Amino acid sequence: MSRSHAPLVVGLVSGSHVVNHAYLLLFPPAFALLGADLDASLAELGVAVGVVSLVVTAGQLPLGYVSDSYSHAAVLLGSLSVGTLGCAMAAAAPTYEWLLVAAAVMGVGIAGHHPAHYPLLSAAAPDAYRSRAYSAHGFTGAIGLAVPFAVVPASVALGYGWRSAFAAIAVFGAVYTGVAAVAVRRVPASITRAGALAKDDSASESLAGPPSLSGRLRSAGGRLLAYGRTIADSPIILLLTTLWFVNSVAAWGIRTYAATLLDSGYGLQSEPANLVASVMLVVGAVVLLGGGYVADRTGPLPFLYAGYGSLVVLAAVLSSVAVPVVAAVGLVLLLAATIDLSRPARSTLTDLASERGDVGKNFALMTVGISGGGAVAPPIFGYFIQTSGVGVAFLGVAATAAVALGLSVLLATLVE
Predict the structure, then answer these.
(1) Among 116, 110, 125, which residue's Cα sits nearest to residue 8?
(2) What pLDDT shows up at residue 208?
(3) Which domains does the chain have, with CATH numbers?
(4) Which residues, including other chains, have CB under 8 Å from residue 55's CB and lie 6 or more apart?
């Protein structure tokens, strides 16, 4: 594949990552305002965040099939369009129940972005630049997570409220969807339909004519069974899926409730607490960008140990709710960096453990783990905060990181 289209595809996919991740964390920075306006508890708002991730989890494999069988570009544009609709619905939500519906619609949209992004990057990026392409993708995703934490406090400070903040993010998403629809026309079908074209080439070798519906179903069933056998025979992939899930639980506990920790636990006002949470995600994004570069030279396993070991210590210290507020702010700024430090390492290990024909499916499986963690973490940690306090919730984050560290040690025994 020529390098000529790689920058365009990386830019297109990276911009989509910003938008989709802004939708993914739309609610947490507005928790206090949503609770007051929609008469919802913190645990109920955690459920709303969980609904987004639950729908994303359910949509991964179906949309992955659509992306591989028809068009990666169509799934990318559809993802942006539906997610933007859900964000606009959230901005107009008159009740908590409406907010849940908006969360489900956003989830349907967000579900398509990884099944479209990874195949597009894989098809467009030359081997020599592949790691940098994935690093750019991860960096912009982290920036997207920070967007709501910056926009919501700014809107509130200017007197416009959370609805205007959500609407502004929806408008941004709509504008980018239009830009992407124009840009994708410049990308050749060999990239935007790479999966479908590979499938057509494979089918032409064994079929004289178009397959019947029953033939297509048998073929799809055979591929599914074959992939299932591959996964069953690959303990590393199963262990990595578990690690991505556990990592996601810890990450979502941090992303969703870091501002709540500073607000409820350390007495920092809501607006500066949200700002700190936003800067935390930016710090994590910078660490992620550099982590991929260094991991290519040192190997991935040390980054797993460093990231999860640091998170155990930081989350445990913060859970005490006893350190000075200035120190707490400094420690919170490092929280996301501990998670993002390990992301390039997890991606590299997944790639190395995958057969070339299973890379896309394996990353889809990892994304199911990510989304599953996002579905369970916000309501569970929200419940802990509601019943036992924010310190207990972050002690739970520390315990989750300890599990991830143990899985990393087990993974090292299989890899080495």
Answers:
(1) 125
(2) 46
(3) 1-204 (1.20.1250.20), 233-416 (1.20.1250.20)
(4) 103, 104, 106, 107, 108, 110, 111
Among 95-99, 221-225, 289-293, which stretch is predicted with the lowest mean pLDDT? 221-225
Helix/strand number for the chain, H first, E second: 17, 0
13 within 8 A of 137, measured Cβ to Cβ: yes
How much is the pLDDT for 228?
A: 57
At 233, is the secondary structure helix, strand, or coil? coil
| DSSP single-letter state for residue 212 | P
pLDDT of residue 360: 60
3-class DSSP assignment, residue 263: helix
Read off the pLDDT of residues 90-120 as tens digits, 9 standing for 90 and up. Answer: 999 999 999 999 999 999 999 999 888 888 8
> What DSSP state is assigned to residue 193?
T
State pTM to two decimals.
0.77
- Contact yes or no for 91/212 (Cβ under 8 A): no
Reading phi first (left if > 0) and then psi (alpha if -120 to 50, else beta), residue 275 is in alpha
| DSSP-assigned letters across all residues of 78-146 | HHHHHHHHHHHHHHT--SHHHHHHHHHHHHHHHTTHHHHHHHHHHHHS-GGGHHHHHHHHHHHHHHHHH
Count the neighbouring beta carbons within 10 Å of the beta carbon of residue 216.
13
Q: DSSP letters of 135-179?
A: HHHHHHHHHHHHHHHHHHHHHHHTT-HHHHHHHHHHHHHHHHHHH
Other beta carbons less than 10 A from residue 269's beta carbon: 10
The single-letter code of the amino acid at 194 is: A
Dihedral angle, C-alpha 37, 43, 44, 45, nearest 10 ° = 60
Tell me how far apart the alpha carbons of residues 180 and 62 are, in angstroms, rounded to a whole number.
23
Q: Is the pLDDT of residue 350 over 90?
A: no
Residue 92: φ, ψ to 5°: -100, 5
- Share above pLDDT 70 across residues of the chain, in percent, rounded to a whole number: 85
Report d(CA 248, CA 377) in Å as an integer: 8
Answer positive or negative: Cα dihedral of 57, 367, 23, 70: negative
Contacts of 72 by beta carbon, 8 Å cutoff, 6+ apart: 115, 116, 119, 120, 123, 191, 192, 193, 194, 195
Mean pLDDT, range 121-148, rounded to an integer = 81
